[in-house]
Design goal:
The chain has 208 residues and is mainly α. It has twelve helices and no strands.
Length: 208
């Protein structure tokens, strides 16, 4: 729709303080359509360095009063904001809660992809990937995320074990992909990353 296209286009205009303010107003408005609210949070993806955006994203993720779609949109939009401790704490709280909506946990995991320089995040991914009690999709995503740290002996050892011997074929496949160490289009699309090879930029909001 035209309105969806307009909301997405605002993701590039965060340098104008009026833009995050307008997106926050839409995202927080409980009278608005859930899909538009979720998209407004996603459109703030590049604005996570702003304290008001980071605080709003963290609050929306934590709020069980918010519709599931809105919480997922906030988690999706938290990728860059995850550099801030309060946002990471909200994401890890969701990821650690097996009673949470599985789709929300997956979005939280994806938004923590860029935080694996923090040992605690790496340990979470390793633990989740190996945890047979966890949903298959969560385990596979955790294993796949470790593509970024495959150069580390502990990570490579665990991914090799999962690829060779895990009982879940989805986990075996994800671990095998992670072992290649290749961060290409497939990884960027899955984890909604806006980087890539020089000259081949992609917009994470494409297709949203």
């Amino acid at each position: 729709s035209v309105r969806r296209a307009c909301i997405k286009s605002l993701s590039w205009a965060g340098h104008d303080g009026r833009v995050p303010e307008a997106l926050l107003d839409l995202a927080r408005d409980g009278r608005e359509d859930e899909g538009f609210r979720a998209l407004a949070y996603k459109a703030m993806y590049r604005m996570g360095h702003r304290s008001e955006v980071a605080e709003a994203v963290a609050a929306a993720m934590r709020s069980t009063q918010e519709p599931a779609a809105v919480r997922r949109g906030a988690a999706w939009g938290a990728f860059l904001a995850a550099r801030r401790v309060e946002v990471r704490n909200a994401l890890t709280a969701i990821l650690d809660d097996s009673g949470e909506d599985e789709a929300l946990r997956l979005e939280a995991l994806k938004s923590l992809f860029g935080s694996q320089n923090i040992a605690d995040i790496r340990r979470r991914f390793l633990t989740l990937a190996a945890a047979e009690r966890e949903p298959s999709e969560v385990r596979a995503a955790a294993a796949y995320a470790l593509v970024r740290r495959v150069g580390e002996a502990e990570v490579r050892r665990e991914l090799t074990r999962l690829a060779d011997r895990d009982s879940d074929p989805a986990v075996r496949e994800a671990a095998a992909k992670a072992l290649t160490g290749h961060i290409g289009e497939e990884v960027m699309r899955f984890f909604h990353i806006d980087g890539g090879v020089p000259g081949d930029y992609r917009d994470p909001l494409e297709g949203e």
